[in-house]
Design goal:
By secondary structure, the protein is an alpha+beta fold. The protein has 14 helices and 30 strands.
Length: 581
């Protein structure tokens, strides 16, 4: 390694620079170096230690901003004066090592929930999410895997999509930090106007790419949308090397860790490169599982702001790592073409697994996906209710084909490395698909209930489903051969811990029964249309405490799926409840 070359520039006196920010808002401190380095990205490590008025300390990694400048970002819920001091691996550089000063954090008085209540964390019950101050947070995510690439223009396209998703009710946006799926390294489809996220010789990160990405990530936060940032698709780790992937993640955490974000280590973490042979893939899966676990352990060691950490899996985040205790929550991929009962079953497995943690489907049925059969709004809706209810209503992530890969009329994404094409619907058209708005209405409906107290109730499985539950390869083969389990009625069932409310979801017009034993007194039953969320009070037959009921009409979309809301007699309607939320 070459020794740094001295410069004649005088160091900046940070102790005299006034720094002010609001609670939970990131503030940036810049450290110009008086010493020039041949490879600053690789030669230096710079951290800044912040001490809050309470005495709590945060070690924030700094990032190389290009040329001779390093930056650190800081945020805190504590008002008052916060002291800081820099720590540089080159202790002989006074412009980077031992710099001290203060940041004043003032109260935030606006209405952005990410600043008013703080970023999200795992709730104390270990089953749901909440804001930093404990305010419940229902995760409703949207999937923009390639949202940082140049095909989604800034600011017009990106801001239009963000506005639409906020208006619908989404509050989480999943994006990949430059190393995108369905393409090889340095594919032109992943380029931004400043190039790729790494230099093509893999010698260093490209700060200009991340300057552009900053605009988009900060805009999401300013709109009250939580970025869920995936560092890369899993197969990139052996392509760029373990050390580079660790540097990549240190850079992401330094750039965005002070913002109210969520970290997901990789996409389809244990999925090898598409074109490897079957024998190669078997070896690669084992290596990806162990090496990505090392990356996640490294991420946790520098996660000074305590942002939630998970990974996007091929099937389950738990199965993607060698130590599930490194994860804050379990993200699942439950299948684009898998039957509805499968989504409910996967959620139930996640709920029962240990250690206990929130479970969400991070990739389910992408509406508009051009597989056989085409994925519809009903498919997306069924996957939402089946999985969300059986995972305790922690949340769910939606996806629209056309948005995740940023199709445009002029530039459809085209084929993946396997030669298959998921469809060419432009993102502007995909943005208007009806399933997204139906899930937004679902979130509004749930907010009128104590959703953050929900726990799932088991629904009986058929014999074949039970046999296939722990045989994923055999189950996938059965699906490819055309087997579909008979739809249960209901598909999923959940109840609040205080037994004040329960929800059953049925995807067919079959009659079914519900045990009313948890309710101590008389029960009111209401059909909720999962398309329009109109309410229909119903009469039902009881034999003892067993309720027997059957949908008697189609919903607003002409489909058979319905929600059954059970409450103590005399409870207010959803419209009446919404006036108090």
């Amino acid at each position: 390694m070459e020794r740094p070359v001295s410069s004649t520039r005088a160091p900046t006196d940070l102790s005299t620079t006034p720094y002010k920010a609001h609670q939970h808002q990131a503030i940036e401190l810049r450290f110009p170096s008086t010493t020039a380095y041949a490879e600053p990205f690789r030669e230096l490590v710079l951290d800044v230690v912040f001490t809050a008025p309470s005495g709590k300390t945060v070690v924030a990694p700094a990032f190389w901003a290009g040329e001779d400048t390093w930056c650190v970002r800081y945020a805190s819920p504590e008002t008052g004066v916060h002291a800081f001091r820099s720590q540089c691996s080159d202790e002989g550089n006074p412009s980077l090592h031992g710099q001290a000063g203060e940041v004043e954090i003032e109260p935030y008085l606006g209405d952005n929930p990410l600043y008013r209540h703080g970023g999200i964390r795992v709730a104390d019950d270990r089953r749901h999410f909440c804001h930093a101050d404990g305010t419940p947070f229902f995760w409703l995510g949207d999937t923009w895997w390639m949202g940082l690439c140049g095909r989604l223009s800034w600011p017009q396209d990106f801001q239009a999509l963000a506005h639409n998703r906020k208006e619908i009710g989404f509050n989480v946006i999943q994006l990949v930090a430059g190393l995108y799926p369905d393409m090889p390294l340095f594919d032109e489809r992943g380029r931004s106007s400043s190039g790729f996220c790494w230099e093509t010789d893999l010698s260093r990160i490209n700060p200009r790419f991340f300057d552009e990405a900053d605009q988009r990530i900060f805009h999401l936060v300013e709109q009250g949308l939580t970025p869920c940032i995936l560092g890369a698709w899993g197969y990139y780790l052996p392509m760029i090397g373990l050390e580079n992937m660790q540097r990549h993640w240190r850079y992401l955490i330094a750039r965005w860790g002070a913002l109210p974000v969520v970290w997901a280590a990789a996409g389809e973490q244990t999925m090898p490169w598409y074109l490897e042979s079957d024998d190669q893939k078997a070896v690669s899966r084992t290596l990806l599982r162990s090496d990505w676990t090392r990356v996640i352990a490294d991420m946790r060691s520098i996660n000074g702001f305590g942002r939630p950490i998970t990974t996007h899996p091929f099937e389950s985040a738990r199965e993607s790592v060698t130590d599930a205790n490194l994860l804050d929550f379990d993200m699942q991929q439950t299948g684009h073409g898998a039957p509805t009962a499968h989504h409910a079953m996967r959620a139930w497995q996640g709920w029962r697994a240990q250690p206990a943690m929130p479970v969400i489907s991070g990739e389910a049925r992408y509406e508009g996906l051009e597989i056989q059969p085409l994925v519809t709004a009903r498919d997306a809706r069924e996957a939402f209710w089946a999985h969300a209810l059986h995972s305790g209503l922690a949340g769910h992530t939606y996806g629209a084909n056309g948005i995740w890969q940023v199709n445009t009329v002029q530039q459809p994404f085209g084929a993946s490395p396997t030669g298959s094409c998921w469809g060419n619907m432009p993102w502007e058209q995909a943005m208007q698909l009806p399933g997204a708005r139906q899930l937004g209405l679902a979130k509004q409906f749930l907010r009128t209930l104590p959703w953050h107290e929900f726990e799932p109730l088991a629904v009986p499985e058929g014999r074949l489903e039970k046999f296939l539950r722990h045989r994923p390869r055999l189950r996938r083969l059965a699906h490819r051969l055309g087997w579909r389990p008979a739809p249960h009625a209901p598909v999923a069932l959940g109840i609040a811990r205080e037994k004040s409310v329960a929800i059953a979801y049925t995807a067919s017009d079959q009659p079914f029964r519900v045990d009313l034993t948890p309710f101590r007194g008389p029960v009111k039953a209401t059909w909720i249309d999962p398309v329009s969320f109109e309410e229909h009070l119903v009469q039902f037959c009881c034999r003892g405490r067993q309720m027997h009921i059957q949908p008697h009409r189609k919903n607003a979309a002409g489909d058979n799926d319905w929600l059954l809301l059970l409450q103590p007699a005399g409870s207010p309607s959803a419209r009446e409840r919404s006036g108090h939320v």
